[in-house]
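User: two proteins, same treatment. go.

Assistant:
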Amino acid sequence: MKIRKTFIDIRDYAPAQIRWLHEKSPYSWKAVVFSAGLFLVAAFSLLLAAAVDLTYYECNPWHLSAIYLSPTKIPADVKSYPVAVRPLTPMLWTGEDIIHTLFRLGEKDPDDLSTRWELLIAADLKPEELQPLLLSGRLPEPGTNEVLAGDLASEKDFALEGKIFTVVGHLRPALSGFICSYLLPDLSNFADIFPEDNNAVFHGLLLPEKGLDSPDAPKGKLRRPLRKLHVSGEFIDDEEGPQIELPAMLGGIMRTLEEVAWWSFLSMILCAFSGSLFFIFLFRQMHLRQYRLFAPIHRAMNDYQKFFVFTHFFMYAAFFFAMHTTLHYPAIAFHLKRYIMDTFSQGGLEFIGSAYDAGNVFQAAWATFYNNYIDQTLFMTFGWSLLIPVGVMKTLGSFILVGGVMAPMWVGTPLVLIFHSLTMIVELEAYIIASFAVLLWPYILIRGIRNKAFGSAVKKGVAILFNAALLTAVILMAAAFYEALTLIKLFGG
């Protein structure tokens, strides 16, 4: 009887195959291809959500309406109405107070009529023009202190100039320009609470049909100083204090259907899951095939695979917990959106917003890469974590903030996410890799001290950090170019 050969001669195998035999790991790209296919399923799910979202949007009256608060040339064939706008509490509309507003939403007394973050918008509108805009309730009676509440406006009464206003009806959620406002359809009878000499009052034009489509729509913000009480007993402009800031154009932010929002939320979870699987399997295969360029970080991902997977789970759990929370509390989501828009238009990230407004793909890609990699990753994550991994806390906070901002509750968001979900999983993967590396760094040092091999531990840890920094640079560079290309070429910046 022939005796079957039962031993393995390693001389018959290449190094990568020896590693496969030793680790008993499947040497195949099937898992990578499967996770990529799973991502395509998630993208198709977002496409279906976008189709429902856009159908809902186009079926609503005044879905292209806007309020211009800055002087703009209006074509003669475009219908417009004089309008007056004032914040109920001007202090809550200063640029430095948006985050403070988020806390006040949860802390203030619901019966307090004196501190409210909504806007009051007044225009002379006829009942036949208002009726299609009404979601529930009834229209205000002419000459009475009655208003219609926008989608995110409170149902509670409010006080202004000694008058108590009552909500008698609600406007449709997809009505552009009135999301956080009250509509007073009787400007002529209430002109006394919209005086021209009051810095908190803004006058402009309401365009119910083509406001968002106009190429001449005003941009930026209008700023006016708040008034303070002088020792003489008169109110004067406080030029050195905070300023009231209102967008030059109100409109464009509308809530989509609740079913579409949650559908998109689940699709984004599938995107994140498939993207995580893709990168975990991809890095595994690159490690088995012994690609030298990123060998130290790939080996670390393999040696500490459970911890690498846990880092994904923990970061994405924070991301989607924040998103889930803002879906339940849309007022918070609205203020977070205001905060991010202000940051890109006039805050610390204004250089990125300006690059996208210029329409230059390479300039926008470089600005995005500079912020995402040099500032946020290289300096704040790696740099801050050389002694203690405090940079991970910064990254965790970024995941929570971005998760809240990306809540898919706004009209048009599912369509953007079809392309931007790829940017999301690629960028977030880079931040996860950086967090994994800086958390591994002190563990390797402590283990080296215990084993009396501190020098070799430092050498190993530095190699992992340097290699992780290089890998995240490549990933974020690709993500920045893709983001700039899609946002500028497909969505006009």
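Protein 2:
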Amino acid sequence: MSEMISNMTPSTTTTLLKPSEEALIVFLQTEWQDVHHSRIQEWSALGVVTGTHFAMVQLPSMLEKLKLEGGDWSAVVMIGCAVSFIMAVLGMLITCRHRNLMEVKLSRIFEAERQLGLVKSDTNPMGILNAEDKMLSASKARGLSLPRPLSTSGMIFSFYLVLVLFDVMCLLFAMKGGKS
């Protein structure tokens, strides 16, 4: 790489500029806003999926009140369970994707804090943040990260897991024709 740089002519070289303190502060604010916005999206998605599940639970009693011909509603309940199941799985995937996004954002935030001189090091003993505070990466697969169990994302993921298990039980019950 150094050979490449030394072989460049002055017209093809670029000057690397260090971001200003103001630019880093604006960058930090924007990154934190993105982190908070993604968390709001996670909770909103969980609310929508949970609402879908509440509606699905009410579906059999609503259909019974209609007293329409052909009183076997197991197919309708199975479709409702399948839709709820799909929504819960999509919610889990959103949570994992946002966990990955958070890892990326927090890594960038840490680097900006380091450039601002906030991170303690051998060369900067006056920093207020420890280098060990940097977020460690979790297991990743295709832009998805499983949340840590004792985190907000982990709790949201657990709620989705409960909803998925509920959907599987409902599907099995509906497939039996609603008979225990």
